[in-house]
Write a structure and sequence with these properties.
- The protein has about 475 residues and is an alpha/beta fold.
- It folds into three domains: about 1-100, Maf protein, CATH 3.90.950; about 105-160; about 165-475, tm_1862 like domain (pyruvate-formate lyase- activating enzyme), CATH 3.80.30.20.
- Helix content is about 40%, strand content about 20%.
- The protein has 16 helices and 18 strands.
- It has a nine-stranded mixed β-sheet with strand order 14-15-13-12-11-10-9-6-16, sandwiched between helices.
- The model is unreliable at about 370-375 (pLDDT under 50).
- The structure holds iron/sulfur cluster.
- Iron/sulfur cluster binds near residues 187, 189, 231 and 233.
- The site of iron/sulfur cluster has 11 residues, from loops.
Length: about 475
């Protein structure tokens, strides 16, 4: 939808709202919108200590408009005024669009990718649970089920935050290789048929970075709270490479206070008994075995070369080895899947009794082979039925995030059996502590002001560049980041 702004500059706010409510179509800003053209005109002005905004929308033959206003406190500084203007403009667009939609968005006008974060900050500032519930309902029109998800995730985050050690940091290791690329994936995952020859030089470069990052943390007495090895598919490393990487983590990091060590085993065809033994020997405490769906035809359709039975066999092998918490990922909205198929996948996975189950909603991403129109493919009621099933089995939602262009404008939710919530996932998602990320595509995050300010330091995106630049990356890792006490 084309849109134009009059009297304000909150371009991002208007675009975010349009993407959230109409994810199927492109949204372009134009300088003017003729009276009879389709599109959205967003106006704002100030009057008597208030900011007012009106949105006028034409879609086909239908026209709507809505006006919204906010009081600006006398004490508001420039940043606060901008925040109020953005909220006012977005709310007017939301209210004007609502009558034109064929469904009521479960997240209302809330558009951020981390809905539990403002909820947590509001509780920290003294808001009661009831007050927060009313705030999410009245200010953002969030549905009852999503308010509950949001508040529960905020509670998990606060519990985790209260237990953090001073300066605690989490460690991420990225292995950007996969057996073959899934059609919906935009991640820089390099399929082994084409890029397998790079795994060994990549491993050697990663070992250097592990050594440098370990020295940085040790010398500065920074406690390590968790380790997460993700990708890609880390178990594309062969047994020898996996052994070397995990040994390097043992050697260079003090894990005395480390609460969790996760390896995303991902695809069953990459998991062997020997690799599981290596992980056990090095203290890996949590693995992820990801079916995405338990429907074989859907798996084939998205380019995954395994079956649901492979997943079940792999899961049983991991359980027999013992000692791991196991997470399993599912994706709602895969092409060829339907509501009944999703529910069946959830039931089948839950019957295995993994400790954690994460349900993602398919998100359209630049760089993925698969292009789809998400709206309407995934009714929220289907997800609600999945959530209800899991909660009936004793799983609790513990972390939550959203992405742009998500199927149905929904969310990704991690569920856990009591006492098995992933420390890393909560810290990372809620930006509770620093994360040092190693490997190509790794983005280290330094958090300050209770997660309100995030400083990001990115490694090169592609393995080739990472390998070529490893000496300078290591040099960089040897000194504490600018402006921070070591
Ligand atoms: S296994 Fe995961 S990272 Fe690899 S291509 Fe598939 S979705 Fe992407």
């Amino acid at each position: 939808m084309n849109y134009c702004l009059q009297g304000h500059d909150r371009d991002n706010g208007v675009q975010e709202m349009l993407i959230s409510l109409l994810p199927d179509e492109p949204h372009d800003r134009v300088s003017e919108l003729p009276e009879d053209a389709e599109g959205c005109r967003s106006l704002a002005w100030e009057e008597d200590g208030r900011i007012l905004s009106r949105a006028e929308i034409r879609m086909g033959e239908r026209r709507t408009q809505a006006q919204f206003e906010s009081v600006v406190p006398r004490s508001a500084d420039g940043e606060e005024r901008k925040r109020i203007l953005t909220y006012t403009v977005k709310t007017a667009v939301y209210r004007a669009l609502l009558p034109l939609l064929d469904h009521k968005p479960v997240w209302g006008s809330l558009t951020g990718v981390k809905p539990a974060k403002p909820a947590r900050l509001a509780i920290r500032e003294g808001m009661s649970r009831e007050g927060l519930d009313a705030w999410l309902r009245d200010h953002y029109d969030v549905s009852e089920s999503r308010r509950r998800l949001c508040i529960r995730s905020a509670e998990y985050a606060m519990e985790t935050e209260d237990g953090l050690l001073p300066r605690e940091t989490q460690l991420y290791l990225g292995i950007p290789f996969c057996p073959a690329k899934c059609s919906y994936c935009s991640f820089v995952s390099n399929d082994m048929a084409r890029w397998g020859h790079m795994i060994e030089p990549y491993t050697r470069a990663l070992l250097q970075e592990i050594e440098a990052a370990g020295a940085l943390l040790r010398e500065n007495r920074i406690p390590l709270g968790s380790v997460y090895m993700g990708g890609g598919t880390p178990t594309t490393l062969n047994e020898d490479q996996l052994e070397r990487v995990l040994s390097a983590v043992d050697r260079h990091f003090d894990r005395t206070v480390c609460r969790e060590f996760t390896v995303e085993a991902g695809r069953p065809e990459t998991i062997t008994g020997e690799k599981l033994d290596i992980m056990t020997a090095h203290g890996v405490s949590r693995i992820s075995i990801n079916p995405q769906t338990m429907n074989d035809a859907v798996l084939r359709g998205v380019g995954r070369n395994h079956t649901a039975a492979d997943i079940e066999n792999c899961y049983r092998m991991a359980r027999q080895k013992g000692g791991f918490l196991i997470n399993m990922d599912l994706i709602a909205g895969l092409p060829g899947d339907d509501d009944a198929g999703l529910l069946e996948s959830v039931r089948r996975v839950a019957a295995l009794e993994p400790d954690n189950i994460t349900i993602h909603c398919l998100a359209r991403k630049r760089g993925a082979r698969l292009y789809f129109g998400p709206t309407g493919q995934l009714p929220p009621e289907t997800l609600d039925a999945c959530y209800t099933h899991l909660e009936g089995l004793g799983y609790e939602p513990y972390y939550l995030y959203r992405q742009k262009y998500m199927a149905g404008g929904l969310e990704n939710v991690g569920f856990c059996k009591p006492g098995t919530a992933s420390h890393y996932n909560i810290c990372m998602m809620e930006e509770l502590s620093d994360v040092i990320a190693l490997g190509s595509g790794g983005v280290s995050k330094l958090c300050s002001e209770n997660g309100r300010r995030i400083h990001r330091i990115a490694n090169p995106k592609y393995p080739k560049e990472y390998i070529e630049r490893i000496d300078s990356i290591v040099q960089e890792k040897r000194r504490p980041p600018d402006g921070r006490e070591a």
